[in-house]
Design brief:
The structure is a single chain. By secondary structure, the protein is an alpha/beta fold. Among the domains are: 160 residues, FAD/NAD(P)-binding domain; 105 residues, no CATH class. 25% of the residues lie in helices and 23% in strands. It contains ten helices and 20 strands. A hairpin with a 2-residue loop joins strand 11 and strand 12. Helix 1 packs parallel to helix 6, helix 1 runs parallel beside helix 10 and helix 2 crosses helix 10. The longest helix is centred in the C-terminal third of the chain and has 16 residues. The protein is globular and about 70 Å long. The two termini are 18 Å apart.
């Protein structure tokens, strides 16, 4: 009797996480990916214009992202993320020229808000208490309806923090998702808020070690293998249709569908998925940062929002960037570099650059779109969903993607109650 085959369709982080959890234990894993490389929106590549290996998008993790860190441990890449020993984030306000560092204390009792040197300039300790409203139960609502979207604390911390986390204008963003981020980070203290960055690139941290791990465990990895559709019998998937072959499923075979929401909706009739998406713009400048440049800086009152300092380049992330999609790339490069030069105090002309516009980077993290996110089960008895766009309780983040893969793997691994096909 052959062992069950688990077909994981999609080798982004959700699919990789599911495959890593499922491999072994008497199962055969086949990982199918439409693109020629794994990683989805979390990958690195050699950019010909820069002649550097860069990430297709800058991603920041926090030390409280437990699923992501457990995933890295499983694939032997636990040292791939770097960050400070204690929580600390540098900020600069380009309008006032002020610079400061946000320094939450390690423990969950937030005594740091009583120390002016640790908090945002121009704020009072009691200003921070208003955010506890996001932790209250109840129906989801816009963030602006829960927290007053004005004042120094909003402008200098909550707006950039939640814009990065939600990739949606915080005023219209989901208060429920914002509250979930708070519970797992600031509310747990500085130990959960240390910023972590993959210094050698996202692929070196999250993708390549996973592929090596899966191959060593006997998994089959098929890149450039696009799923076109399903054959259905009764209430289950009977076959996977690819351009070059049809793969028939045995009675105990299962499918993890870890594809973008619009692809999932085309494959699973009646599946409700998010309909609105938000863009991210990333800029990369081939110039070594000056000595002493913080590895990450938040920017207030600028076009740039977060500046990452790598050994061989400076990179910028701009979230909720739909307004910039029609701006010519050359103009964007000039405008963003003006901010970067001021943030880093570099008096040099525009260096070699690259602009990456990702139109549908994440679903719009509004209450309406959050309500459209499906759970992991489908109408098919032998297929489950994974992806950061599913109902993970988190925004579309690396942590959410990996949790969705873990959840799909747990469902697949459950003993089946008979055969429905």
């Amino acid at each position: 009797m052959r062992c069950p085959v688990i077909h994981v369709v999609g080798a982004g982080l959700a699919g990789l996480a599911a495959a890593v959890r499922l491999v072994g234990a008497g199962r055969e894993i086949v990982l199918h990916e439409a693109a020629g490389q794994a990683g989805g929106r979390c990958r690195s590549y050699l950019d010909a214009q820069l002649d550097l290996v860069i990430d297709n998008g800058n991603h920041l993790l926090l030390s409280g992202n437990r699923a992501a860190r457990d995933y890295l441990r499983r694939i032997g890449a636990e040292t791939a993320l770097e960050g400070p020993e204690h929580a600390e984030l540098a900020f600069v306000d380009l309008a006032t020229k002020e610079r400061w560092r946000l320094c939450p204390n390690d423990g969950p009792v937030p005594w740091w808000i009583f120390v002016p040197a640790r908090r945002v300039p121009g704020t009072r300790w009691r200003d921070y208490l208003a955010l506890t409203r996001l932790l209250l139960p109840g129906a989801d609502r816009a963030l602006a309806a829960a927290v007053e979207p004005e004042g120094a604390l909003w402008e200098r911390l909550w707006h950039p923090f939640f814009l990065a986390a939600l990739n949606t204008d915080p005023a219209e963003g989901s208060a429920r998702l914002a509250g979930a981020i708070l519970r797992e980070t600031l509310m747990k203290g500085g130990r959960a808020c240390r910023p972590l960055v993959a210094r050698e690139g996202l692929s070196a941290a999250f993708v390549d070690p996973a592929l090596r791990y899966l191959a060593a465990q006997g998994a089959t990895i098929r890149l450039g293998h696009r799923l076109d559709g399903f054959e259905i019998e009764k209430d289950g998937v009977a076959a996977l249709g690819f351009a070059d072959e049809t793969v028939r499923l045995g009675p105990n075979d299962r499918v993890v569908l870890a594809v973008p929401p619009w692809v999932a909706a085309s494959l699973v009739p009646g599946l409700e998925v998010p309909q609105s998406f938000r863009a991210i713009v990333n800029a990369h400048f081939k110039l070594a940062p000056p000595a002493g440049t913080p590895p990450l800086q938040g920017v207030v009152n600028g076009l740039a929002e977060w500046v990452f300092a790598f050994e061989d380049r400076l990179s910028v992330t701009i979230s909720g960037a739909d307004r910039l999609l029609s701006v010519p790339r050359e103009e964007l490069a000039e405008r963003i570099w003006a901010d970067v030069a001021e943030v880093t105090q570099i008096a040099k002309p525009l260096p070699t650059w690259q602009i990456i516009k990702e139109k549908r980077a994440t679903f719009a993290a509004t209450p309406r779109e959050n309500a459209r996110r499906p759970g992991p089960t489908t109408r098919f008895s032998n297929a489950v969903l994974a992806g950061d766009w599913t109902a993970t309780g988190l925004p579309a983040t690396i942590e959410g993607a990996i949790r969705s893969g873990n959840r799909a793997a747990a469902l697949i691994a459950r003993p089946q109650q008979g055969n429905s096909r």
